[in-house]
Design a protein that fits this description.
This protein has helices spanning 2-20, 24-33, 38-55, 83-88; strands at 69-70, 76-77. It has 89 residues and is mainly alpha-helical. It has a domain at 2-55. Strands 1-2 form a two-stranded antiparallel ribbon. Strand 1 (69-70) and strand 2 form a beta hairpin. Helix 2 (24-33) packs antiparallel against helix 3 (38-55). The longest helix is centred in the first third of the chain and has 19 residues, at 2-20.
Length: 89
């Protein structure tokens, strides 16, 4: 029972601090220094990653990436294909 509550505390710690932007390695190092066992920390990190992945939004469509070449005055430049590329693809 004590191990389960300890694991739940560590899972909460990981979720809170991973969402703040801390890296998993720094969080693991901090927990090891506080006396938590390697097994509990690794299991808690796996569980926290699963829970955070479930909350992540699912992208339904791919983003459209467009690019254009601009001149010095920020006007778009139309790039024409060479004669060889127009003929041979």
């Amino acid at each position: 029972m004590r191990e389960v509550s300890s694991k739940n505390k560590v899972v909460g710690y990981f979720k809170k601090n991973l969402s703040k932007g801390y890296t998993p390695d720094t969080l693991k190092y901090a927990l090891f220094n506080q006396g938590y066992s390697r097994a509990i920390v690794e299991m808690a990190l796996t569980q926290a990653n699963k829970e955070l992945a479930e909350k992540a939004p699912i992208l339904k469509e791919k983003p459209i990436i467009k690019h254009e070449v601009l001149d010095e005055d920020d006007n778009p430049i139309e790039i024409k294909k060479s004669w060889w590329k127009r003929v041979f693809g």
